[in-house]
Amino acid sequence: MVNYTLNVCRQILDARSNGQVRRLLDGLLCKNWGWDNFIYVAHVPTRFVWSREAPQGLMITNYPVRWLLYYLHKGYYRVDPLITHCHNHNLGIVVSFNPKEWVNFSTEVQELAASARKEGWTGGIAIPVPAMPCRGSLILLTTKALDSVKDMLDNALLMGPTVGLHVHDALLEIALCRTFSPLDKKNFYLSNLERDILQWTAEGMPGKQVADQLGISVKSVERHLEKVRERFNAPNRAKMLVMGFALGLIETGRAWTYGSIVNAEGYEERLEQLFSGEVKIPPHLTHDYLNGELPSEDKTP
Q: How far is residue 157 CA from its own chain's centroid?
C-alpha cells in the first residue's frame, strides 16, 4: 500500500494536466483506498493575472457537478467546518453526517451537512495539508457506514498529507506553466536567505530588524531585496511581494475562498454552462470538460 501510494505520488508530480492528476487520484483514493469522492482545495493569496482582484484557488475534485455548483453558489465554503478545521489544525478529523453530530452548529452548517446526506455520503475525513503558499484541505467522503471503513480512515490519516502535498505542487506547477515560460521560472528559485528576507519583509518587519534577525547589515538586506526584484522583473517592491505571494514563496495563513480556479482557467464559466444545459457532456467526461481538457468534438450544444 505504501509503495503503491508513493509511486502514484511520483506520477502526480510528473502530471502535466488537471485530467492526469484527477485520474491518478481516482485510481489511488477511490479504486485503491476505497473512497467515493475527493476534493483538494487551497487558496492562492494573490492572482497570477495581476490586474484582477478576485481570489484564486487550486482545486481538483471528482465531486458530482450538481453538488459542487450548489455548494459554491450557497457560499458554504465560508462556513464549512471541514475547511476551517484544516486551516487551524495539523491533524485530520473524522466526520459523520449523522444529524445528531450537527445540532450545535449554525443553521447554515446544518444545511450543508443535510445536503451531503442527500448526496448519499455518510461521512469522511478532512486532512490538513501544510502546503505552500498556504495550508490546503484534502477531503475524502464515503457512502459506506463509518464503522466499516476504519482501515480506510487510518490509511488516509497516515498518508493523506503526503498525497495532498504532491497534489498541491502538481496543480501549482500546472498553473505556473500556463503563466510563465521555463526561462522565467528559473528566476523564482530563491536561496534560504532570500526567502527569509522576503518573508519578513512581507510581514512588515523593518529592514534593521530583518538584519538583526539574520546577523547581516541593513545594506545587505536591501541588496538582496533588490536582486530578487530584478530577477522577478518587478517594477517596484510592492509588485515583487505580490509575485512572491502568488508563487508560494511567501507563507500566508489565509483560507481558500471561492474565486477563479487557477489550475483550470474558465472552470466557473463551464460549470455554469453545464448546469444551465447550455452544453451537454457525457457523465464520464464531465470533469475533463470543467478543466478545459475535452476535445471540441465531444461537446454537444
A: 18
Under a CB-based contact definition with an 8 Å cutoff, are residues 61 and 71 in contact?
no
Q: Give the chain's length.
A: 301
State the SS3 of the chain.
CHHHHHHHHHHHHHCCCHHHHHHHHHHHHHHHCCCCEEEEEEEECCCCCCCCCCCEEEEEECCCHHHHHHHHHHCHHHCCHHHHHHHHCCCCEEEECCHHHHCCCCHHHHHHHHHHHHHCCCEEEEEEECCCCCCEEEEEEECCCHHHCHHHHHHHHHHHHHHHHHHHHHHHHHHHHHHCCHHHHHCCCCCHHHHHHHHHHHCCCCHHHHHHHHCCCHHHHHHHHHHHHHHHCCCCHHHHHHHHHHCCCCCCCCCCCCCEECCCCCHHHHHHHHHHCCCECCHHHHHHHHCCCCCHHHCEC
Q: Which amino acid is at 281?
A: I
Compute the distance between CA of residue 266 and CA of residue 292 in angstroms, rounded to an integer: 7
26, amino acid identity: D
* pLDDT tens, residue by residue, 44-79: 654 444 334 445 678 999 999 989 888 888 888 888
- Residue 50: the pLDDT is 37
> Cα(46)–Cα(109) distance, rounded to whole angstroms?
28
In this prediction, residue 230 has a pLDDT band, given cuts at 50, 70 and 90, of confident
CA 212 to chain centre: 35
Mean predicted lDDT score pLDDT of the chain: 85
Contact between 56 and 242 (Cβ < 8 Å)? no
> What domains can be seen in the chain, in order of their start residue?
2-180+254-296 (3.30.450.80), 189-246 (1.10.10.10)
